[in-house]
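tool_call predict_complex ligand=adenosine-5'-diphosphate
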Amino acid sequence: MTPERRTQEGVASVETLLEALPYIRQFHGRTVVIKYGGAAMREEDLRVGLNPVVVHGGGPDITTYMERLGMEVRFHEGLRVSDPETVEVAKMVLLGKVNSDIVNRINRHGQPAVGLSGDDGSMFTVKPVANADQVGNVGEIERVDVDVLNHIAADYIPVVASAAADVDGNSYNVNADAAAGKVAAALRAHKAIFLTDVPGWLETPDDPSSLISRATVDEVERALGDVAGGMRPKLAAIVEAIRGGVGSAQIIDGSRPHSLLLELFTDAGIGTMVTP
Ligand code: ADP
Ligand code: MG
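tool_result ok
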């Protein structure tokens, strides 16, 4: 089947949802980590019968607030170049705005959610990334302590903002894809789903019809060096998650209506699926 045809067939309809119902029990009780960010934030249908853990960044909002404050916004290989001032603003926007907005929306949808960052319950242990000389205070997660997540997930949907401090209390900007991959691995999640604003991993970045619908983790790892922009940390996070024991990973267009439900509960085959 051509990628184009797959995309057309994935379009939301009541029929597509009805075919989903038999799958709901199959998933029941399994942990699914959902990376939610950027343009995907319009997605409202967050769950049915699953244990979701939401991990988010705040790219566009952080950029908006930085620009309002007259700060320079720069990216290097998909990572935000972060001086201490940038990290301060990023953390304020991530926790004070983006995280609380997501929690509110999930609450209003009838599912109680709890917001937290990597600092809460010392969930993330971070250190500077290898190319810190180029990107500044960007952190890499060394360890995820899932204890606090498991406590919260027993009764609430955890919503994790990708920021954390090191042992000395210095704050770092942590790429949300990387955080989602680490969290998924630490939880040994059934699945990690990356909601984004493109149909998936594209062979040619500006050609939506060049969707790569399936790949193995080895294939992704081999291609990684040639992938640029925001897709690179996403694919790197997927490799990390699957090598860490996550069952599969999916990149889907979260701005498409019902994309998440379609992915979870139908055979519509949307986006890019990566398997071990
Ligand atoms: P988010 O992390 O919020 O999902 P990003 O902007 O960080 O969004 O990452 C997604 C972006 O990656 C796409 O909008 C696209 O511009 C860019 N990109 C670069 N290379 C590719 C590729 N090969 N396939 C798909 N998207 C790509
Ligand atoms: Mg990104």
